[in-house]
Design goal:
- The chain is of the alpha+beta class.
- It has 8 helices and 10 strands.
- The strands form 3 sheets. A 4-stranded antiparallel sheet has the order 1-6-7-5. It has a 4-stranded antiparallel sheet with strand order 2-3-4-8. Strands 9-10 form a two-stranded antiparallel sheet.
- A hairpin with a 4-residue loop joins β6 and β7.
- α1 crosses α8, α5 packs across α8 and α7 packs across α8.
- The longest helix is centred in the C-terminal third of the chain and has 20 residues.
- The chain binds zinc ion.
- The site of zinc ion (ZN) has 7 residues, from loops.
């Protein structure tokens, strides 16, 4: 599933391509994309909108239009954009936007969990603030803010990192990578981390997300940027998907377990279980 670095990679490329472009015509082929709104209604509403900018909050892509409306896109498992759109039939193409420069943007989604939501002017902030917490790469994400988000939580820290209301944009890959770097066991209760551990984890969350952006995201199977290129972050993984491989710091074999219902990789020596 695309996480913050993958969505940011898509955002920065789409922003370059789409800024000031008008959506001349929109076709949405899949009713699941806009549910409960009928796809033809959303497509008709989008026609004529001019893109002011393409933004991101957490894992949401946000097309901000000159009209003040926003198209909020969540890629979920396998959603992706393609520009220019590939020519010829594609069974996984769910929507196509014809732009006023004659080019097309396609939205592809093999698993069909992606969503498009058109918000009227003034609706965006309330929608997002009800669903996601602070942006980890922004200055406002201080150790104090992070500590407040974790305080009182008895759930494992891995689960807290995956909770978008605690911190926006972190998913399974970057959670494991950040915990390894901070030497914190994924099952530690989130509210019981010492202040210095919270500070370390804040730093490593920012490090791994920044590295992911610099490497244009991680491609495990499906992720591609709008130009069709794979990311390179998967080559920098220290634990994710590396069960049995030696830990880079101590040579202990990396262990795979399950935390918060998700496959979780960690080093049992560097990240000791306090129980
Ligand atoms: Zn280790």
């Amino acid at each position: 599933m695309p996480e913050l670095p993958e969505v940011e990679t898509i955002r920065s490329q789409l922003a370059l391509k789409l800024r000031s472009r008008r959506f001349d015509h929109v076709e949405i082929h899949d009713g699941r994309l806009t549910r409960p709104e009928p796809p033809e209604v959303v497509a008709a509403e989008l026609a004529g909108e001019v893109v002011r900018d393409v933004r991101r909050r957490g894992k949401y892509l946000i097309f901000a239009f000159e009209s003040g409306r926003h198209l909020l896109v969540h890629l979920r498992m396998t959603g992706s954009f393609q520009h220019p759109a590939a020519v010829g039939p594609d069974p996984h193409r769910r929507a196509v936007v014809n732009l006023d420069d004659g080019s097309d943007v396609a939205f592809r989604d093999v698993r069909r969990f992606g969503t498009w939501l058109l918000l009227e002017p003034g609706e965006l902030d309330a929608y997002l603030s009800a669903r996601i917490g602070d942006e980890p790469l922004e200055g406002a994400f201080t150790t104090a803010v992070f500590a407040r988000a974790l305080a009182g939580r008895s759930a494992p820290i891995k689960g807290a990192l995956l909770d978008q209301r605690a911190v926006a944009g972190v998913g399974n890959i970057y959670a494991d990578e950040a915990l390894w770097r901070a030497r914190i066991h994924p099952q530690r209760p989130a509210g019981e981390l010492a202040r210095q551990e919270v500070a370390a984890l804040r730093k490593t969350v920012r490090q791994v997300l920044g590295l992911g952006i610099a490497r244009q995201g991680a491609t495990l199977s499906t992720f591609r940027d709008p130009n069709g290129r794979k990311g390179r972050m998967q080559k920098a993984f220290k634990v994710y998907g590396l069960e049995g491989e030696p830990c880079e710091r101590c040579a202990t074999p990396i262990v795979k377990t399950r935390v918060a219902g998700r496959g979780t990789w960690f080093c049992p020596t560097c990240q000791p279980d306090p129980r």
